[in-house]
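Worked example 3 (structure in, sequence out).
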């Protein structure tokens, strides 16, 4: 592919990313209604929610409502402390933050009958951290998802083929029933997992185990039919694929007590070819728009232009 080709690819990426954020109509044509929670799980399972996307809850006003609630309230169907409450259908709720979001209907009995939706919202794939956008154009990292800010203390990651990272789950505490129900979420929150990285689960063998499971099994703490299970510690699990990965302890009650870890794995942004061309924006899981991604695309174009000029001289 010649230089013109590169430029066309990048301009296309720019145009593609400039599409609007997605609107998701909850349960599609059925709308926000009383039905099995599995229906909501299945609906959400194949979707990649990102910051900026909008959930649309269709329902007849005064027959349902939508409350965003905490995980605890979601699990117990408690309506006491809602984060927000929408009384009129259709309700449009913009997903402004990453992480898990929980929605229930507060009408008596509706949530416990299954009218509840839990989703996981990822960062806008093309958004970059401030440190990322500060990377000068001479390192044309074409994937606009550099490692997160906490790594800025480390040497620059412009070195292709960097050694994958090992992450010890919950650090020195190890894989255990956590003191806080959000301990694993907090531990994972500032980490940028990439394909090739390794999770290390430290635990006393026969007191815990580690199963990789589906999102549905993670949510319901079901240890039947795990994707994989490791019973001996320390368990090292290589992250071989992008996307969300879910881990639970299958010992009775452990997962329900919070021994569960959900992480999102990105492609290895360091595995760039010397020309920096291989993982161009559009090959990422879900290119999206944002002011930042537009800035990044422009940056990429600028970087390519400077490479081109270097070649021409
Ligand atoms: C989402 O809905 C808004 C408001 O109706 C609309 O302007 C926008 O184009 C929709 N976006 C997509 C991607 O459909
Ligand atoms: C919600 O509030 C009601 C009334 O104050 C109380 O009886 C109930 O125990 C509370 N439920 C939860 C789950 O906190
Ligand atoms: C998300 O942000 C928009 C725009 O700032 C705001 O209007 C909306 O209320 C926010 N939504 C939620 C659920 O916080
Ligand atoms: C990760 O662990 C493996 C196996 O123990 C080791 O070979 C490798 O050097 C470690 N990588 C880092 C970055 O610590
Ligand atoms: C990841 O790939 C390695 C090497 O191909 C393999 O040994 C390992 O079982 C894989 N891990 C998972 C979790 O699939």
């Amino acid at each position: 592919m010649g230089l013109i080709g590169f430029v066309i690819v990048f301009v296309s990426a720019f145009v593609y990313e400039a599409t609007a954020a997605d609107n998701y109509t909850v349960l599609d044509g059925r709308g926000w209604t009383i039905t099995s929670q599995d229906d909501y799980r299945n609906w959400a399972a194949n979707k990649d929610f990102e910051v900026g996307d909008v959930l649309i809850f269709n329902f007849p006003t005064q027959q349902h409502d939508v409350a965003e609630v905490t995980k605890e309230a979601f699990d117990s169907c408690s309506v006491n402390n809602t984060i927000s409450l929408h009384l009129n259908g259709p309700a449009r709720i913009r997903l402004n933050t990453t992480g898990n979001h929980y929605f229930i209907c507060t009408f008596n009995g509706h949530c416990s009958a299954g009218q509840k939706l839990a989703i996981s919202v990822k960062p806008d794939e093309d958004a970059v951290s401030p440190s990322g956008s500060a990377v000068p154009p001479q390192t044309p990292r074409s994937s606009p998802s550099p490692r997160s800010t906490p790594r800025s203390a480390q040497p620059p990651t412009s070195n292709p083929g960097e050694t994958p990272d090992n992450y010890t789950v919950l650090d020195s505490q190890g894989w255990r029933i956590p003191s806080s129900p959000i301990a694993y979420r907090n531990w994972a929150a500032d980490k940028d997992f990439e394909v090739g990285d390794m999770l290390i689960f430290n635990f006393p063998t026969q007191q815990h185990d580690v199963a990789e499971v589906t999102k549905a099994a993670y949510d319901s703490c079901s240890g039947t039919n795990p994707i994989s299970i490791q019973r001996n510690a320390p368990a090292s699990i290589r992250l071989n694929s992008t996307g969300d990965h879910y881990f639970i302890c299958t010992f009775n009650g452990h997962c329900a007590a919070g021994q569960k870890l959900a992480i999102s794995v990105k492609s290895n942004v360091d595995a760039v070819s010397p020309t920096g061309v291989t993982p161009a924006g559009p090959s990422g899981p879900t290119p999206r728009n944002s002011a930042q991604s537009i800035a990044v695309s422009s940056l990429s174009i600028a970087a390519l232009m400077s490479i081109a000029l270097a070649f021409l001289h």
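Notes: The longest strand covers residues 260-266. Residues 291-312 form the longest helix (22 residues).
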